[in-house]
């Protein structure tokens, strides 16, 4: 009797649950709508008041203080003990390392007309190392890729870039792998280091440059230090993940056999996590390549400097040729390290017959490489790349011809597309941000942070808004914010369209995923070149480049989220009579909400970094402030403040979207 009476009570208690959840969701949307409507109403009433606008050459007290600090450091650099015995020593060590590697492969050392190892030796070493750590296909790719760099007429620039990458990656891994192992073994250290890694990976590449020049001056040493700092977090994070992913049973077996912690680490943990650690090395190399090219802004030699000079003079052909060289180097480095991570498994699948010949063949390859190195060290013909870069000249000429054709024949279409998006979406939204009173925009951002991410996200937004006001570049920050939000909306449109397509069709996924993977390998600089040819030096160029740069990661995340929706749920919806559109909108996308939120988070971070780089091609705002700070000494303080503003925008975006993702998945 009691059981019979309890049953309806449970039913009555369970019935209101769905309406309550629905009411909460509706109320959140209603609050967001109310915030936006209130913002628009007050904008109409208060437009143009309290906007904190600042002219391009105008400075605030904070900017002047930064300039004074920079001048003071410059005056006391060789007398202050902190610089004399710490910063200067670090700079000297890195500078010597860079000079040493450059003397080996790119710059003639004192007393020699050519580097110690010429092009023939470098190509031989690249092919041999690629074969040793990967396979013969990767070795052919490396030889072909490095030879192509010389045929482009960019051998020395490419070797300068490679020298900086080698030094930066070597020093980064020297610290990153031990820290990653420590984070993998210690929960306490992992909890301490994770927020710092999140913060470092949130910061766009531009932001690392200004503060480092304050301590290490402008030059290859500062560029290398910025590169290694930017490239270290992926190695730390992935190494920690690799150590934590080793099965507990393997560690327990080692303990039961009496292994010491050191023996367990060296004999069990590191060998079993080697493949994942090599993947971390791959990500470090890719991050280093992206940073080295941008570090040309602080006088880093190499391909990045060629691209920047070409972009600043609107020389699309030269920029395209150098950008292509960066892509070729990125593909070679990526394929070599990816093959290295999978070599043992591939070797096991290939059978033992090849393995028995591998060691003698490697020995013969080492002898051939040594001969090539000797020839390149001894003879000028083997040291200096032959020819005058005729292929590069042809590529640049073809790019210029294509640019002229596009501007003559496609300008109507491209200008119409640019004007429609600019006038219909970008200008109105940017006006809402820059012409609203600063306190109104701040209140709206804080309110949206609370509604989307909760009280902590709202508090983070409040702190970031306050600090943005303090930087003195509020108006430029809002301009960058407007471009970033518009670009992110476009990224999500592409992400949902292609992501759903890939998630629903394995065939489409197999076709598109390699292209998306290749797109993620290319450094941000490369994306500016083709759109500079199509749209000219405008902020729209930066936005389109940012969309193309950020879309691959969003598409892949959404595709994986749609694919992970249980088949049984989709089949149930199909059997209930739902059509394809209803299945996508009512089942798959709602159940992939956490993936959509994560894609938005990553899209925002990628877009922000690219929009800022777009300061080189007319995007203005914070990107221009940073670039101007490097080139004009009196604007250094403003450039440093702009870099801080970029960090604050990135942190605010990241915290709100991450909190929203957690609330969505909860």
Polypeptide structure, described:
It is a single chain. The protein has 666 residues and is mainly alpha-helical. 85% of the residues lie in helices and 0% in strands. It contains 30 helices and no strands. Helix 4 (81-105) crosses helix 10. It is globular. It starts with a helix and ends with a helix. Mean pLDDT is 84; it is low at 1-25.
List the helices and strands and how they pair.
Layout: H1 2-14, H2 17-46, H3 61-76, H4 81-105, H5 119-133, H6 136-151, H7 155-185, H8 187-202, H9 205-216, H10 220-245, H11 248-256, H12 261-272, H13 274-294, H14 303-312, H15 316-350, H16 352-378, H17 380-383, H18 390-409, H19 411-435, H20 438-453, H21 455-471, H22 474-504, H23 506-521, H24 524-535, H25 539-563, H26 567-575, H27 580-591, H28 593-613, H29 621-631, H30 636-665
Helix pairs in contact: 2-20, 3-30, 4-7, 4-10, 5-6, 5-16, 6-15, 7-8, 7-10, 7-13, 8-10, 9-10, 9-30, 10-13, 11-12, 13-15, 14-15, 15-18, 15-24, 18-24, 19-22, 20-21, 20-30, 21-30, 22-23, 22-25, 22-28, 22-30, 23-25, 24-25, 25-28, 26-27, 28-30, 29-30
């Amino acid at each position: 009797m009691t059981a019979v009476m309890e049953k309806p009570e449970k039913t009555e208690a369970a019935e209101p649950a769905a309406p309550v959840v629905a009411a909460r969701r509706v109320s959140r949307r209603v609050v967001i709508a109310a915030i936006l409507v209130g913002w628009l109403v007050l904008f109409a009433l208060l437009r143009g008041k309290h906007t904190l606008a600042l002219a391009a050459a105008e400075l605030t007290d904070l900017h002047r203080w930064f300039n004074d600090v920079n001048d003071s450091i410059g005056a006391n650099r060789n007398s202050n003990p902190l610089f004399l015995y710490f910063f200067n020593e670090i700079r000297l060590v890195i500078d010597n390392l860079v000079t040493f590697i450059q003397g080996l492969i790119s710059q003639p050392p004192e007393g020699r007309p050519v580097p110690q190892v010429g092009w023939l030796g470098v190509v031989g070493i690249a092919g041999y190392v690629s074969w040793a750590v990967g396979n013969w296909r990767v070795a052919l790719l490396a030889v072909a890729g490095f030879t192509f760099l010389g045929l482009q007429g960019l051998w020395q620039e490419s070797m300068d870039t490679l020298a900086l990458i080698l030094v930066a990656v070597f020093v980064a891994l020297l610290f990153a792998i031990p820290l990653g192992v420590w984070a993998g073994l210690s929960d306490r250290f992992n909890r301490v280091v994770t927020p710092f890694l999140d913060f470092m990976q949130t910061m766009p590449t531009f932001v690392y440059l200004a503060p480092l020049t304050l301590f290490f001056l402008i030059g290859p040493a500062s560029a290398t230090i910025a590169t290694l700092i930017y490239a270290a977090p992926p190695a730390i994070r992935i190494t920690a993940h690799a150590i934590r992913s080793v099965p507990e049973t393997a560690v327990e077996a080692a303990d039961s056999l009496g292994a010491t912690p050191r023996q367990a680490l060296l004999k069990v943990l590191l060998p079993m996590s080697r493949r994942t650690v090599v993947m971390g090395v791959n990500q470090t190399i890719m991050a280093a390549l992206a940073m080295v090219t941008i570090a040309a802004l602080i006088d880093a030699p190499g391909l990045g400097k060629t691209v920047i000079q070409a972009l600043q003079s609107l020389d699309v052909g030269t920029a395209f040729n150098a950008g292509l060289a960066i892509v070729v180097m990125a593909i070679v480095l990526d394929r070599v390290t990816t093959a290295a991570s999978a070599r043992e498994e591939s070797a096991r699948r290939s059978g033992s017959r090849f393995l028995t010949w591998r060691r003698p063949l490697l020995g013969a390859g080492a002898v051939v490489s040594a001969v090539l190195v000797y020839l390149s060290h001894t003879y000028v013909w083997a040291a200096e790349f032959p020819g005058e870069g005729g292929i590069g000249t042809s590529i640049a000429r073809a790019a210029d011809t294509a640019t002229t054709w596009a501007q003559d024949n496609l300008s109507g279409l491209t200008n119409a597309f640019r004007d429609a998006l600019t006038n219909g979406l970008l200008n109105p939204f940017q006006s809402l941000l820059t012409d609203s009173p600063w306190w109104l925009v701040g209140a709206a951002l804080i309110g949206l942070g609370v509604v989307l991410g909760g009280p902590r996200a709202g508090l983070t937004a409040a702190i970031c808004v306050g600090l943005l006001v303090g930087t003195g570049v509020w108006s430029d920050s809002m301009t960058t914010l407007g471009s970033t939000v518009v670009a992110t909306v476009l990224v999500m449109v592409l992400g949902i369209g292609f992501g759903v397509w890939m998630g629903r069709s394995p065939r489409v996924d197999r076709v598109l995923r390699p292209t998306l993977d290749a797109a993620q390998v290319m450094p941000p600089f490369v994306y500016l070149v083709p759109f500079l040819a199509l749209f000219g030096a405008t902020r729209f160029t930066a936005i389109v480049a940012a969309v193309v740069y950020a879309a691959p990661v969003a598409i892949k995340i959404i595709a994986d989220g749609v694919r992970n929706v249980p088949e049984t749920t989709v089949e149930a919806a199909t059997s209930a009579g739902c059509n394809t559109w209803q299945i996508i909108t009512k089942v798959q996308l709602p159940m992939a909400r956490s993936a959509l939120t994560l894609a938005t988070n990553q899209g925002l971070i990628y877009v922000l970094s690219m929009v800022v780089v777009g300061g080189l091609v007319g995007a203005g705002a914070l990107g221009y402030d940073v670039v101007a700070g490097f080139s004009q000494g009196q604007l250094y303080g403003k450039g440093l403040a702009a870099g801080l503003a970029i960090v604050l925008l990135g942190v605010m975006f990241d915290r709100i979207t991450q909190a929203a993702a957690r609330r969505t998945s909860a």
